[in-house]
Amino acid sequence: MAGLVPAIHALLRSQDVDARVKPGHDSGESGDMFQSAAIIGVGQSAYTRRPEAGQTVLTFMRDAVVAALKDAEVDAKDIQGMAVASFSLAPDAAVDLAWKLGLSLRWLAQDTNGGSSAVSMLGNALRTVECGYASPILLIGGDATGLAGYAKVAANFNTVTQKHLAPLGHGGPNGVYALVAARQMKKYGLEKSDYGHIAVAQRAWAAGNPNAVYRTPMTMDEYLAAPMVADPLSRYDCVPVVAGAQAIVVGRREQAPKARPAVRVRAIQHSFNYDHQQGDGLQTGIGTFADELWQTAGMKPADIDVASIYDDYPTMVLAQLNDLGLIPGNDMAKFCRTVIKDRTLPVNTWGGMLSAGQPGGHAGGMNGISEAVLQLQGRADTRQVKDAELAVVTGYGMTMYRYGGTAGAAILERGP
Amino acid sequence: MSEGVAIWRCTKCRTGFFPEPLLCPRCHNPQFTTDTVREAVVEETSVIRHMLGQENWQPRRIASVRTSDGQFMTVGLRDESGPGARVALFQEGEAPFGRAKA
After folding, report:
1. pLDDT per position as a tens digit, A359-402
2. Does the bond joining A217 to the residue before it have cis omega, within 30 degrees of 0?
3. B43, closest residue in chain A (CA to CA)
4. Is the ipTM of this complex over 0.90?
């Protein structure tokens, strides 16, 4: 199995996952979460910083759907279920999109969990396919808010933001995560350049992704010289807003293209409002289920070859990696200066949202899942991780007040 | 502007919350009384130097503070108070602000 360098493997394997399992938990046989349901196709639209006339969230979604159906070798008339997540679909709703796509369905959902919508929709679709109610199911995420539209979304994200944050001129998510980053730097002894290692490494990965909006390699000096947005976050710490869409097809394994095995999901977990916003935000909801996730998958952190970690900010990449048990000894600084800098653990191999762009958190999260699928199927071209067999994907979102309140994660496996 | 910031105190377990809950997260009691917190300690600060969609934005300071009653709040800072400083809380509309205690 390819993946981590031996030293990192040894460090991670020294963590006894079984010993961390919550008392009383019984997950049954490892890796048996889904016998039938799997991911059978992925697709995306073009990404752009500034949509042209005639480009709307609906046209981006259409392009992603067409690409995913082609990839899955599924005819649109055979789709039985659909889920969609978007900040800019309104006033249309999921059923309007189904109508416009010519889909007659027996299962339909609209997800509102932002950066964890992708994992939420994936979990709901897998469970629906597994129980035999509908298959295949099409998952769609996309946004085309434009910068002004995004600012409006950020200022009106929820009633708490409207009442208690926006009147401060809090800067939207940038301001919220600036405070979380300052807290994280203090607690873990991080330097600004530690976040830089994440941004620089992901930009290097993005060079191999023709769909990324920023592909030119970036140096640490360039990262450090970038203008401050919300101290301590500077330009390259803040995810660039783009327009675009992603789609994923979930179905029974036998519905996958014959020449390409489906990607199995060994385990998937979700968390919503894990601490009532009364913590420090340095742990995410992933921390509530990580042990169960690994045990259900029959895996441990050291087994992972590829990681797609939701990356609206480098701060939250580190928080999620730590919650997953992927940072030995919780030593974030050392991890950034070695594993991330040297890219010995392939994290966000499509460039992540920090380089590829964030077409809303929904589609951004779906891009991470899609990249894991491509890697596990050996279809990631020049950014392919050799012999990738196992991937972890995460989602994190919905900045309710002081940090995000939703999270999800899944362990994906190359099909037989 | 009014001195202090309104919080919501559970009538059963007496825990104070900000923002306003519907049920107490600790005991799920639906009844609250309003109270006022007047002081906090600054824990982290930031300067918002750029705002999407705004061309003539003037930098503003915000902070994460812990009130004397234990709540975590994000406030606008009206002076150069930094981490560790005690600030007096005040409210404009429903938004909490702080400045160094006189």
Report:
1. 988 888 999 999 999 999 999 999 999 999 999 999 999 999 99
2. no
3. A183
4. yes
Find which of B5, B48, B97 to mutate to test the A interface (most A CBs within 10 Å of its CB). B48
Contacts of A279 (CB under 8 A, 6+ apart): none
SS3 B29: coil
Per-residue confidence (pLDDT) for residue A154, from 0 to 100? 84
Radius of gyration of chain B, Cα coordinates, nearest whole angstrom = 15
pLDDT band at A200 (very low <50, low <70, confident <90, very high): very high
DSSP state of A274: S
Q: How far is CA A205 from CA A74, A347, A353, A391, in A?
A: 30, 9, 11, 16
- Note the pLDDT tens digit of each residue in B60-101: 999 999 999 999 999 999 999 999 999 999 999 999 999 999
Q: Answer whether residue A12 shows pLDDT above 60.
A: no
For A342-366, b where at least 16 C-beta lie within 10 A, e where not — what string? ebbbbbbbbbbbbbbbbbbbbbbbb
Half-sphere exposure of A104 (CA within 13 A, CB side): 1
Q: Could you say which of B51, B72, B96 has the minimum Cβ distance to residue A169?
A: B51
Beta bridge partners of A43: A247
- The 8-class DSSP code of residue A241 comes to B
A interface with B, Cβ–Cβ below 8 Å: 147-148, 150-152, 154, 160, 163-165, 167-172, 174-176, 178-179, 182-183, 186, 227-233, 241, 276-278, 401-402
Tell me, what's the pLDDT at B55?
82
Return the domain boundaries, chain A: 6-147+240-413
Strands A137-143 and A244-252: antiparallel
B22 shares contact with chain A (CB less than 8 Å) = no
List Cβ neighbours of A197 (8 Å cut-off, separation of 6 or more): A220, A336, A337, A340, A341
Quickly name the fold that domain A6-147+240-413 has: Peroxisomal Thiolase; Chain A, domain 1 (3.40.47)
CATH numbers and ranges of domains, chain B: 2-100 (2.40.50.840)
| Sequence-ordered list of residues with C-beta below 8 angstroms from that of A140, at least 6 positions apart, any chain | A61, A64, A65, A82, A83, A84, A85, A86, A97, A245, A246, A247
Mean pLDDT for chain A overall: 92
Q: How far apart are CA A63 and CA B6, in angstroms?
A: 49
Q: Is the pTM of this model over 0.90?
A: yes
Peptide bond into A136 cis (omega under 30): yes
pLDDT reading at A101 higher than 50: yes
pLDDT in tens, B28-50: 999 999 999 999 999 999 999 99
Whole-number pLDDT of residue A27: 40
